Every structure is written in structure tokens, then in C-alpha cells.
């Protein structure tokens, strides 16, 4: 019998790893990967809460399902944008993306 | 047995998610992400959500990671050698903030008294999932299902429009 | 009668069609389309007039009919603005006048404006003007009238400034707009006062007679509020109709194309003021008869002033412009001296009759002047002379119009002017004598113009003048025809102050004396200007200062300039400008400077880096969590 809190601890670590990546990385794709981590950790939480706290219901399950779908969509569009950026400035480092600022 | 499997999965997830964000090479980063996603799928299987695990494997591991790898190869012809270095202070600040956040969250999680929680085994019937997904009653998900299908269509079109070469 | 709605709507559609689609049309298409549209409108107007007068009187009077009615804006129970079409004798008469003159001008412009830049725009504006003017005359309520009143002002502005590359035209259009705008302020205040105290905009209700009773208690500075309101409304009418001292815009308005002068500044728009007074005539009689005397005096003075100035001008369009002002003065006098009903109401009939005949012959005069200017290329009399050989049609039609305006029988002007004089004698012998004198002056200056243009010494010309094309002479002939015979219309049958039939009798003494006076004046003009003569110069030296003053229009324009430039601009506006620039702008600039300085200090926070923002966000979240959980 595994306690629910164990799962939550794992997902928390994953979540903050994602947060850290989001701050730390300078590559747009790496930032996107960090966001995937964050999303995944939340998915785990949904599934776990559903299974442990409300076993008779399906809300958490479907939330996870839809979150996976939406993250797929988000990734597709983000990657399209990143490729477009790369085509324009041959670089995807965030520090270089300041053309519109000046 | 379950405990052992859980610890293995937890170790995989924790180690690789940290590696994902700390490695300097972006392609490795994507690969580590793949392992994390596998671990997550494993957790879903362990929770008896086989359908969710399958979806996780096919969409994330099968689809999204391939997309990442392709785009990494497209955008970094040099294999991502030139990762710009950050000032140490910023790295430190990010690290401290994240760690503090993690510690805080874990602390709260462990101190919080949840309602009676117990693992109720039992696979969800595909029929149940199907009815819930396409029904219009309470706790049924026809509307979000349709909304997400429209969203995906919009993404397909939007992705093509953004990424296509302008003549 | 429902065709009246079409009369109302069709010109608007024409305007939109020509204004929006004009770019894609050739000149010929746009011109023909505009003319065709107006032909239809004219026919409809005639049909409406025929039906209205054909239906006969009921109870001995012409009943006003509202053939179309729409509640446009409803603010409260009492305050509603309506749009509608009111047919009564004067509005039907105006419909006929406006559409006829407008049609003639449309046809004429096909020739006159040929090849001009912006030909389509010109026709679009003409349609807009026709629409506004028709809307004005059929207004069922005073507010609708005000709306269209402003619209005619706008279209007049647009048409005066048609040659927008000419600085003089731009200045003239601005002058016309601003002067009439000032007058319209009076009109608006008058409308608001009137409707506030009578609780209605509607003409029919205003005429019903019991509205004055409801407001009789209210007085202001010794006069009843209704009288004040009517006085202010007259100010608006005076501005539009170029009554002294608001006349200064009309002579300058001659910078516009000549057909426009004929349509707007001779026949239709400038008589809107007369029409306004006629429209509210029962109210004037009932609430403020003393105001009518004032109107008569203003009209008489304007008439005299303009006639004197017209005698010395050398620009033929200016002469006609002052002549117009003078004739409108006649109409105002006629309305001012009129009473209600029967023989006392003769002035009203005469004023409306003169409005009708004047529209025809003055449009004719302007169109003739246009034909002359078209071939000579100048407005100055000195460039003309001896034109009768080259332009026979223009010559004859111009002569007809001159005889009409001078009041020689059997031309139309004789009948209408004679009735005005009769009405003036009826009011007071002094007024009668004065107006007869002005009529004599009219004959003099018109024939001065006539002889200077068509007789006298020929100026040196680079090419021989030629007769205008048929598209221009046809309207001339038509209008000359109308001018010849319009006098025999039994006008009193159709229009009278109380709607009861009134048969016009010629007053033998008045008719004889006025015709005699006109003949003497024509004789003097003949003697002076038939051939090159030293007499005019002698007269000019004899009158010396007076002549120079008249030539400069008695310095009224200079007076206006002095008041605006020296007193208002230099005295008042500059102080205000200083305050505005240093105090108000200063305060604003201070605010802006402070904001900018502060912004420079803190702009580092706004790095544009999402990651930095997210970091701050996380720190904030953590702090809030700590605060909520542990404290």
C-alpha cells in the first residue's frame, strides 16, 4: 500500500524541476520542455487525487486526458512559432529575441 | 512488489526530470524528458488507469517527443553547442527559489490531513469511458470533447500557417 | 401624395450614388445620371403640386397634409424628434421652385462645367443640396427644419469652395459657413426656447393658436419669451437670407461656380429665411406683431443698402449678389408689413409671389451671367461690352430678366413687386415711398449692368465671343419663358396668409407710379451707359466720398475684420491663448514630464523577458503561501 503523499512528493519535485528549467534555460525549446514537465506533474496529481480520494468518479481522469490533448496542441503551435523565429533570425535563444523591444 | 515498482518509477522521474533541466545539451534534455514521460505512464498504469497510460505513451512519448527531436535537429545544426552561460547569481536565485518552493510544497503536502484516502483498485471499463466522453448528462464530457477537437483543428491550421514558407 | 416621399428620398440616393460611385463614372455619365434623377424628381414635384391643388379646398382653406411621418428620436414623452413631409401651399410652391431651378441648373451645368476637374463631385453636391433644400421646405417640425437648414449650409459651403485650389474660394466658403453658423446659433436658441415653453416642435401644433396662451406668463426683459424666441429664430433666417448686417457672406459666395450661385445664392437657399418667417407667420402675428415691424425695417434697410452698393460694383456677379440681397429685403418687407387674412394679408401673398418670380428671373440672370463669363473668362464689366452681336440668345433672355426685375409689365416681376409696394403703402406711406425708390434703383443698376455688358464700347479681346452651347441656352430660354408668363398665375388662389382665396387686384396708382419710376431709371441708365460717356465718371466725382464708400460696401466687411482681428483676436483671444499655453498646457506638460522621468527610473523592471516576470511571480506566490500558511 503506497501512500498518496508519496505520489504528491514526486510530482512536486517534478513540478519545481520544471519551474527551475523555465527560469534557467535560455533555449526556447528547452523552456518548452520545462513546461511539459510542469504539465505532467499536474496530470499526475489529478490522476492520483481521483484514484485515492474519489474512486467512484471520473473527473480527474478526464482532466488528465484533456490536459494531454491540450498540451499536444500547445506544443505543436509553439514549435511552429519557434521554427518561424529560427527561420527569421537563425537563433532561438531568448536573449536574442529583443528586436521588437527597440 | 508494488512498493518496489513505485520506488523505481519515483527514482526515474525525479532523477530524469532534474537532469532534463540541468543538462547543457538540448537533445539530451529531450531524451530525458522521454524517460520522465515513461515514468509518468508507469504511474498511471500503477494507478490502474491503463487507458491514461496508453494515451500518455502514444501522444507524449510517440508524438510530442518526436516533434521535439525534429525541431531540435532543425533549429540547431551544430548540435546545440553554444548554450549561453547565465550569470551565476541568476542561476543561484532560480535554484534557491525553486528549492524553497519545492520544500514549502512538500512540507504543506505532508502536513495536510487529507480526507480518508485509500487505494481502490479496479480498472475503468472502456465502455464507461466512452459513454462519459460522448454523453451530454452531468459528469459527461461531450462539450469539452468537441471543444478540444475544434482546438486541435485550429492548431493544425495555425501550425501550418505559421510555419509555412512565405513565397 | 405618397410620391412626395420619393421626392424626399431620391436626391439623397442620387447623392450617395454620385458621391460614392462617381469616381468610376465618366463625366458624361455622372452628369446625365444626375440630370435624369432630377428630372424624375421634378416631374414628381409637379405631380404632387397638381394633386395637392387639384384636390381642392376643404372648408374654404387649403388644409396642410402630413403625407409621411416618422418618429425618429424619442427622448422622453414630451421630447420627440420627428421626420416627416408636410404639404401645404407654400411648401408645395417651394417644391416646384426648387426642383425647377435645380433641374435648369443641372442641365446648364452639363455645358458650363464641361471638362472641369471634379465634375462628378459637383453633381453629387448639387444632389445633396437639392435633398437638403427639399427636406427643409417639407419639414413638419422646426427641428427637422433646423437639421436640413444646417445641411443646406454644409452643401452651400462645399459648393462655394468647389474650386478648392483657389484661396479666395476657400476663404469665401469659410466666411459663408461661419457667418451663417453664428446666425444659426440664434436660430437654435430660439428653437429651444420656443419648444421649451410650448412643449412642441410641430408646426401644425404651433399654429393651432393655443400654444402662446400656455407660455404667455413667461417674460424676459419686458418681452414675452415667445417673442424673444421668434426674434432669435429670425436672426437665423436673417443669416441665411443675408439680411443686414449678416449679409457679408453672400457677395463673397460668388466665388463658387456660377450655376451654384444661381441655384443656391439666388433662387433657393437664400430665401430659406423668408420661407422660415412665412412658415411661422401665424405665430409672429399672434405672439409678436411688433417683431414683424422690426423685420420690415431690417428688410427695407437691407434692401436700400444693397441696392446702393449694387449701383457701383463692377463685377457682374457681385452686382447680381447685391441685387439678390436687395430683392430678399423686398420679400422680408412684404412679410413684415403683412397682416392676417383678407386684404391685410396682401403682403404675405406678395412676398411669396415675389419669392417665386424672383427665383425664376434671378436664376435666369445668373445663368446668363454664367454664359457670359464662360465665353469672356472674366467677371469684370470692363472686359465686356457690345456682346449683343455675338450672343443673341443670352442677350434677349438677359433683357427679359432685367425687365422683370425692374418691374415692367407684363413680365412676372412687375406683378409681384407691385403687390409688395401696394402692401407697403397700406402699411405706411413712408415705407411705400422708400420701397418705390428702391425699386427705381433696382431698375437703374440692372440696366447699368445690361448696357455695360451688351452695348457700350467693346473691350479688346483675344478671340471673338461666341454663343453658349445649347445645353446652356435651353435653360435660359425656359426660364425666360417662365419669367414672361409667371405673372399671370392667380397666385392668391394658391397661397395666402390664412389659406382663404384672395384675388389680387392691381392698384392703378401704385402700378403707374412704379412703372414710371422704373422707366425713368432705365432712361438714366440708357443715357449713362448706352454708349461710352463721361457722365458716370462725373457722377462718381460729384458724389465723391459716398461713391467710394458704396464701392467698398460701406466698409461693413472692414468693420467686421476690425472687430474680429483687432478686438476679439488681439484683445481677448491672445490673453486666453497665453493662459492656455502657459497655465493649462504648462500643467499638462508638468504631468507628462514627471510621468516620463519616473518611467525612465523604473523602466528597468520592464525588461520584456518572460522568465524574469515568471520569477517575480513565483517569489510573490511563495511569499503569499508562506504568509497564509504560517502567519
From TrEMBL, chain A:
<dbReference type="GO" id="GO:0048038">
    <property type="term" value="F:quinone binding"/>
</dbReference>
<comment type="subunit">
    <text>NDH-1 is composed of 14 different subunits. Subunits NuoA, H, J, K, L, M, N constitute the membrane sector of the complex.</text>
</comment>
<dbReference type="GO" id="GO:0030964">
    <property type="term" value="C:NADH dehydrogenase complex"/>
</dbReference>
<keyword id="KW-1278">Translocase</keyword>
<keyword id="KW-0874">Quinone</keyword>
<keyword id="KW-1003">Cell membrane</keyword>
<keyword id="KW-0472">Membrane</keyword>
<keyword id="KW-0812">Transmembrane</keyword>
<keyword id="KW-1133">Transmembrane helix</keyword>
<dbReference type="GO" id="GO:0050136">
    <property type="term" value="F:NADH dehydrogenase (quinone) (non-electrogenic) activity"/>
</dbReference>
<comment type="similarity">
    <text>Belongs to the complex I subunit 4L family.</text>
</comment>
<protein>
    <recommendedName>
        <fullName>NADH-quinone oxidoreductase subunit K</fullName>
        <ecNumber>7.1.1.-</ecNumber>
    </recommendedName>
</protein>
<comment type="function">
    <text>NDH-1 shuttles electrons from NADH, via FMN and iron-sulfur (Fe-S) centers, to quinones in the respiratory chain. The immediate electron acceptor for the enzyme in this species is believed to be ubiquinone. Couples the redox reaction to proton translocation (for every two electrons transferred, four hydrogen ions are translocated across the cytoplasmic membrane), and thus conserves the redox energy in a proton gradient.</text>
</comment>
<dbReference type="InterPro" id="IPR001133">
    <property type="entry name" value="NADH_UbQ_OxRdtase_chain4L/K"/>
</dbReference>
<dbReference type="InterPro" id="IPR039428">
    <property type="entry name" value="NUOK/Mnh_C1-like"/>
</dbReference>
Automatic annotation (TrEMBL), chain B:
<comment type="function">
    <text>NDH-1 shuttles electrons from NADH, via FMN and iron-sulfur (Fe-S) centers, to quinones in the respiratory chain. Couples the redox reaction to proton translocation (for every two electrons transferred, four hydrogen ions are translocated across the cytoplasmic membrane), and thus conserves the redox energy in a proton gradient.</text>
</comment>
<dbReference type="InterPro" id="IPR001457">
    <property type="entry name" value="NADH_UbQ/plastoQ_OxRdtase_su6"/>
</dbReference>
<dbReference type="GO" id="GO:0008137">
    <property type="term" value="F:NADH dehydrogenase (ubiquinone) activity"/>
</dbReference>
<dbReference type="InterPro" id="IPR042106">
    <property type="entry name" value="Nuo/plastoQ_OxRdtase_6_NuoJ"/>
</dbReference>
<feature type="transmembrane region" description="Helical">
    <location>
        <begin position="6"/>
        <end position="23"/>
    </location>
</feature>
<comment type="similarity">
    <text>Belongs to the complex I subunit 6 family.</text>
</comment>
<protein>
    <recommendedName>
        <fullName>NADH-quinone oxidoreductase subunit J</fullName>
        <ecNumber>7.1.1.-</ecNumber>
    </recommendedName>
</protein>
<dbReference type="GO" id="GO:0048038">
    <property type="term" value="F:quinone binding"/>
</dbReference>
<keyword id="KW-0874">Quinone</keyword>
<keyword id="KW-0812">Transmembrane</keyword>
<feature type="transmembrane region" description="Helical">
    <location>
        <begin position="141"/>
        <end position="163"/>
    </location>
</feature>
<keyword id="KW-0472">Membrane</keyword>
<dbReference type="GO" id="GO:0005886">
    <property type="term" value="C:plasma membrane"/>
</dbReference>
<keyword id="KW-0520">NAD</keyword>
<feature type="transmembrane region" description="Helical">
    <location>
        <begin position="53"/>
        <end position="70"/>
    </location>
</feature>
Automatic annotation (TrEMBL), chain C:
<dbReference type="GO" id="GO:0012505">
    <property type="term" value="C:endomembrane system"/>
</dbReference>
<feature type="transmembrane region" description="Helical">
    <location>
        <begin position="420"/>
        <end position="447"/>
    </location>
</feature>
<feature type="transmembrane region" description="Helical">
    <location>
        <begin position="260"/>
        <end position="285"/>
    </location>
</feature>
<dbReference type="GO" id="GO:0008137">
    <property type="term" value="F:NADH dehydrogenase (ubiquinone) activity"/>
</dbReference>
<feature type="transmembrane region" description="Helical">
    <location>
        <begin position="319"/>
        <end position="339"/>
    </location>
</feature>
<feature type="transmembrane region" description="Helical">
    <location>
        <begin position="511"/>
        <end position="529"/>
    </location>
</feature>
<feature type="transmembrane region" description="Helical">
    <location>
        <begin position="390"/>
        <end position="408"/>
    </location>
</feature>
<dbReference type="GO" id="GO:0015990">
    <property type="term" value="P:electron transport coupled proton transport"/>
</dbReference>
<feature type="transmembrane region" description="Helical">
    <location>
        <begin position="146"/>
        <end position="164"/>
    </location>
</feature>
<keyword id="KW-0812">Transmembrane</keyword>
<feature type="transmembrane region" description="Helical">
    <location>
        <begin position="6"/>
        <end position="26"/>
    </location>
</feature>
<feature type="transmembrane region" description="Helical">
    <location>
        <begin position="359"/>
        <end position="378"/>
    </location>
</feature>
<dbReference type="GO" id="GO:0016020">
    <property type="term" value="C:membrane"/>
</dbReference>
<dbReference type="GO" id="GO:0003954">
    <property type="term" value="F:NADH dehydrogenase activity"/>
</dbReference>
<dbReference type="Pfam" id="PF00662">
    <property type="entry name" value="Proton_antipo_N"/>
</dbReference>
